[in-house]
Every structure is written in C-alpha cells, then in structure tokens.
Amino acid sequence: MNTHDIETVLRSFLTGDGYIAADDIPAICAALEAARGDGWQPIETAPNEAWFLVHSDRGWIGLARRSDPDYAPDEGWFEDEHTEFLDPAWLTHWRPLPAPPAIDRARGKSGKEAIND
User: Fold this and answer.
1) What distances in angstroms separate CA 72 from CA 18, 68, 80, 112, one per listed residue?
2) First to last CA, the chain
3) Which of 8, 11, 18, 78 could covalently link to 86 via disulfide, CB atoms 3.0 to 4.6 Å apart?
4) What is the pTM of this model?
5) SS3 108
6) Residue 93: CA count within 13 A, CB half-sphere
C-alpha cells in the first residue's frame, strides 16, 4: 500500500464513506509512525546498507547496522559499532544519522579563513 492509497483510505474513513480493511492496518500504522516527524521509524523498515541510530525496548539508543547474514547468529540481526550482535527482538525503532555539521559553521567561520588559523 503506497502513501496515496493510505491517504485515500484514511480520508474515506474519516468522512464516513469507507472502511479500513484489517489487512491495511499494519501499513497504515507504519506510515503514521514514519510520518511522526521525529525521524524514528519501525525497526522492520531499517535499511540494509547503512549505519543508523536504533532504539531498544529497554530505552537504549545506539549506532547500528544490519549484520552480514554470513556472520550473524540468525537472519535479521543487527550489529553495533563494536561489532557486537544485537537481537532484533530488542530493537523497536531506527532513524537515519543526522548530517555532519559543516566544519566552518561548527567553528563559527565564514569558510574563507585558513583551517590552521
């Protein structure tokens, strides 16, 4: 179910002209969770080839990526920056890493000064 379909289903439901099928509820919930605006998304939607932040059901937040299936204890596991495996059952959400700050902005410089001054 794509974003347009979800919007159409929700609009028809809210106006009383439609219904939400039970099969559509997980996709709608995932879309609403992703649209919360804070960047956290369900762990099931985490990318395969990138580092990202993860949140666990125990309140832990850390850096992780999906594990190489050839080395992980089981399918779908993650690993942290220390190559320690993370059980996917512990993880609830992920979010992309923020862009690094521009070095000149971080140093309060206009970008025209020499780096060594």
Assistant:
1) 45, 6, 12, 47
2) 55
3) 78
4) 0.54
5) coil
6) 17
Asked if residue 20 lies in contact with residue 9, where contact means CB atoms within 8 angstroms, the answer is yes
φ and ψ at residue 74, rounded to 5 degrees = -160, 165
What's residue 83's pLDDT? 86
Encoding tokens for residue 101? 């700050």
Q: In what order do the strands lie in the sheet with 61-66?
A: 41-42, 91-96, 52-56, 61-66, 78-80, 85-86
- Residues in the chain predicted with pLDDT less than 50, given as ranges, are 111-117
Residue 80 is encoded by which pair of tokens?
């942290």
Strand partners, 94: 41, 54
Q: Are 64 and 80 in contact (CB under 8 A)?
A: yes
Q: Report whether 45 contacts 29 (CB < 8 A).
A: no
CA distances from 69 to 18, 47, 76, 80, 89 (A): 43, 14, 8, 15, 16
Spatial separation of the C-alpha atoms in residues 32 and 106, rounded to whole Å? 34
